[in-house]
Structure formats: C-alpha cells, structure tokens
Amino acid sequence: MPTPAVLFLAIVAAGYVGMQLYIYWKLRGALPRRGLWRWAAIGWLLAVGAAFFVSRSLEGWGWHRAASVAGCVSHWWVAVSFWLVGLGLASDAWNLALRLASRWWPGGRRLRVAPRLLAGVSGALVVVLTGWSLYEPWLVTLETVVIRAPQLPAGSKPIRVVQLADLHLNSLMSRGRVMRVIERIREAKPDLLVFTGDFADESSPHVEELAKLLADIRAPLGKLAVTGNHEFYRGLHLSLPLLRAAGFRMLHGQCIRLAEGLWVAGVDDAKAALLGADQEDRALPPRGCPDFVLLLKHRPDVELGSWGRFNLQLSGHIHGGQVFPARWALRLFCDYTLGRYNFPDGTILYVSRGAGTFGAPMRLLSRPEVTLIILQP
C-alpha cells in the first residue's frame, strides 16, 4: 500500500498532467493544424512542468533569484491551468446543452462557443486575473476573532494574541509588502505575537534584511514561533537564525506559562518533527488543566489524543488556497482549510490564510491576513 504522501503526490501529478493534456487538446481545435505552434506549445508545457523541480536545484546551488523566478513561473502556470480548464469545461457543458436542445431549438447551435472564441476569451481572462492576483497580495487585512476565555482571571484585561503565518520571504518579496504586514500587526497592538510556520524560502541577504524588519515589533508577553514544513525543507540551520533575527523564541514541543491562566504550547511541523511523532502528546498539559491552553501548530490537523487538552489551536499552511479555485481542490485532502472551527467539546481551531505567498507572488479571492485573537476573560 502506498503511503498517504505518495498517494497525494500521485493524485496531484495525475491531475496536473490531465490539465495540460486538456489545454493542449483545446489549443489544437483553436489554432491552424500546420505550423510550429504545436512544438512551441509542447515545449512550453514541458518547461513549466519541470520548472518547479529546477527551482529546488537552483536554490540548493545558491542562485536565489533564478530559483524564485523558476518557481514563480511554474506556480503561475498552475493557476492559469486551473482557470483555462475551468473555462474550457464550462464551454464544453454549454455546447453540449445546446446540442441536446437543438432537437427542439435548431437555431440554438448558433450560440455555441467556437474554439477560437474560447481561445480569445481565455487569453483575456488570464490577463485580467493575473493582473488582479498580482495586486491582491498587497491587500493585507486584519481579521479579528473574539474568544471567551473563562480560565483567565475574572476582571483582568483581555489578552490580544496576534497570529502571523506563512510569510514565505524570498527574493521576489518587496520591503513594501512586508511593511504592509507590519502595519497590520502594529494596528492590532499585540500582547503576544505568534508565528505558526513557513517564515522564509531562502537565506539571501535580501531576505535577512526583511526578517530584521520584524525585530522592531514589541509584544509585552513575547514573540513565539514554531516551525513549518518549509523550515525543514531548507534546513533548520538556515531557517532558525532568520526567525531569531526577527525576535522570535522557538517552541520545539514545549509548553510555557506566559501569564496567570495562560499556557502556550508549540510543536514542530508534524511531517518532519525534531522530537518524534509523540511531541504534541508530551507538550500539552493533561486533560482537566484549569488554565487556557493555546496550541501553535503549522498544519491544521487535530490529533485524536489532543482533544480536551487545549482550548485554541492556531494553524496556517493552507493559504486559504492562495489562488482561486485551489481552496476547493484542497478540501479533498484537508478537513479544515480556512477560518474558525468550533468543536462540540469547546475546542476551537483557527486556520489563517497567511500573510505571504508561496511560488508566484499571487493571490486570488484569498487576501493575506494578520489575525488578532482577543482572549476575553
């Protein structure tokens, strides 16, 4: 039996190949049969498919900007593929409906979408959506979530916890975008600032300077962070210094008391944990803890053995799908993809859309967010 990771990769690869074959088939119907365009199209589809793997190699060789560009192009094409396939399937369904209706309405055939018309509309759609999705990462929003916390001392002030997730600093991320994120954090006036994984995708001088921008943010209860999968992909010896330069204290399967009635537990990314698969079990206090327990965890997975041992879990990883309609596809693999989830036992999970972008600096219908969690006594 293949492992879940292998099965996931196989499904993703099959889906990607299927989309490229469908796009090529549509192109064949829209363009002349003769000419070099077919070889050009095949070359392009193969090149963008391989660009993701090339970007990993370039990053390993220290060619950070080249790696970012290759990753940007490949991920942009994944988004474009979703849009083209979606529009193509919609036109196929429309044409099929007209064909069936032609038995009673012969004139309806004149309304069918011709291949060249579809190609023109698709091209215009790609330009418009690409333009907007390159702008949307600048629209950083501050989401506010109020949570009752009777475990905190009666009469005490609410505790303002600000969650930052999935920043993904790289050579293509500008200082201006990072400052937009910092503005939202300062607007929230955090008592505690937490980061839930995937801080940077490289360790270039540019990224080091961006990381230091966050060092000026102050929070009375501190700044805590946990690792995400990208910290392990790149190597902790490269990732952790950047987080420390930003002023974060790392939690590796630990639980600390920050204030009266408040504990914060943090665990490494589950797929590459430093402390083994049972780190969450060892980090969390036993059931019946009278204090409010906040769990920081990169992936929005709730372990069966953790039920009743924490009150609120903050996660990210999903990016809200980042580019529409990816979120709907991710629902096939993830139970929790975006926002607040209330469970019957009172446990709460909040999944952030994240503040940055992975791959191409694009977002569509998934604005970047900084999250203010108000723990109300």
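The record above closes out task 2.4. Task 2.5 opens with a second protein, given below.
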Amino acid sequence: MNIESAQGEISGESCLLQVRELTVMLNNGACAVDTVSFDLKRTECLALVGESGCGKTLSALSLLRAIPPEIGRAVARKISFEGRELNDLNKKELRQVRGGRISMIFQDPSTALNPLFSVGCQIVETIRAHQAIQAGEARRRAVGLLEEAGLADTSRILDSYPHQLSGGQRQRAMIALALSTEPALLIADEPTTALDVTVQRQIIDLLGGLLASRDLTLLLITHNLSVVAKLSDRVLIMYAGQIVENAAVTELFAGAAHPYTRALLGCLPHPKSGRREPVFIPGTVPEPGNWPDGCRFRPRCLFARSGCEGEQHLRPFKGNSRREVRCWLAEELFPPSGAEKG
C-alpha cells in the first residue's frame, strides 16, 4: 500500500496533529475521502482548499468523530492530537477534546448557534461544561470573549438571540464561542462565505489577530484563495477526496505544480490583465463513487494525455520533500523556478 504524507518536514514536539490514511465511507458505499494523510504544526495555519464536494469538511469533521451516522463513517490508521490517539478515546474523553482542546467555527453561524437560547447562555454553558467555575465568572469571561471578537455593546449581545444579530455579529459570536474553552486547535469551515465583502475582510483580520495573540493553530477550510493568501502558512489542495498538492503558501502562489491548482489560481481576477469575462474551470467535481480512473481531474484538465489514466501518487515535486504533487507530468508542465527548488 502506498502511504502518502502531505506532511513536509514536521515531526516531534512541534507537531500538534497527525493524520494518517483517513478515509470516509458514505452509507451508499461510496468513498468520499480517500486515504488522506497530513501533519499540522503548532501555531501553523493550514488551509484545505478545493471546490465544494472535494471532501474538505468531511475530513475536518472526521477528526472529531462528528460525521452523522446517517451520512457515513470515518476510519483512519492514526489520528494523533497532542500526542493522544483520538481513535482510542471513549465518549467522555472525546467530549473533553471536542469543543475543548479542538473547537470549530462553522460556515453558517445562523444554523450553528441554537436559536432557542441567547448567545450569552450558549457561551456560558460551553465554558462551564469544560471548566469548573460559577455562572457569574463564566458570564464575565463571555463578556471578555465577545470584546476580543470585536463586538461592542456586549451586554446586549449576551442577552440577544441569534436571529436578533447581524450576520457579522453572529460570526463574531461564533468565534467567541469557539475560543471559550481555550482550544489548542481551531477549525474554521468557510468562516467568511455567508458574509458580505466588507465583513469578510473584518473577520479575516480578526482571525489573523487571534492567531498571533493566542498562539492558536488553525485548520482553515475554504475555496477562497484570497483568504488563503492572507492567513495561511501552508496549503493542501483537495480534489475528489484526495490531496493533489501540498505546498507552502508562498510556493503555491509563486507557481502551482498541479493542473487543478493552476486552474484555481487562473480563476482569480487580475485587474491589470484587462480581462472582463470571468474565468471558470469546465465541468464539475465528480461525485463519490463516480471518480475516473487514474488522475481524477483528468476529464477537466487542459493538459491531459495518454498516461494520465494510470494511478497517481502524492510525491515530492522536483525532489523537494517539503512540497508534494499528485501529477506525473508536473515537472514537465510547470518547471519550478529557482526560488522553488530544493
């Protein structure tokens, strides 16, 4: 069996999370995430990038054993967090990690926050579920968390129900809730998708500030490459359940190694190009169970040729162990620049 890394040179105490051969099987028998492996270093921001349907969210939910049983199940050879094997934890131990040491910011706070309880009630309850403190002290901490999340008039926010807040306020409240347990790892699933452009920038700046001030580790799930450029240290590009490229963010934007990554970057607007029409990738991401043989991007790839129907493995790009690509033509198609070598 080919064991793929997507881990660069992370090892030892600097590694917060290790994932090996993570697979998600849907109840209809289809494989949605296919033997994904990666490492996450402490205080690093790692972005999982790809179109909808590539397996990003399912991969993140698998870390917390949070995939609903009516959808499917996840199996992995290893999921190690802070030196503990999460697969071996019982339900009580897992609850201490899930929402405690690992917190998640969901894509749509209007559905993630409980509409039947005030924001303050939800934050206070979460704090007290993980820490033995009185309700008054928990409420004072909730006020501080909302202020840290950039919200004013915190007394009103605490006593408000989610529907009484704007989209930006709900997302900030969701961030405050996620931070309430002092997590080591924060998972942010499309944290700006449901917001307008101005508020998106504010949330990005807020997350960047929190990463610096709290020494947080962030697993960022997104299809927005502008967010990736602003926040991330390293990027994993996912397509059809597989990692197809692993690179430092500077390397990726200097010159992608996989045709899918190139296609994603090509969709970005370039004001100086004079291009008026939007650029898109033809076709759609194949559904789990309908993946083509060999390279799964092959039916949409402008560079596909005979040989692409063979099995593709994640491997070092031009001998660089810190950068990996799943394309047998990568070096021929996209020779790395001098800055990318070694």
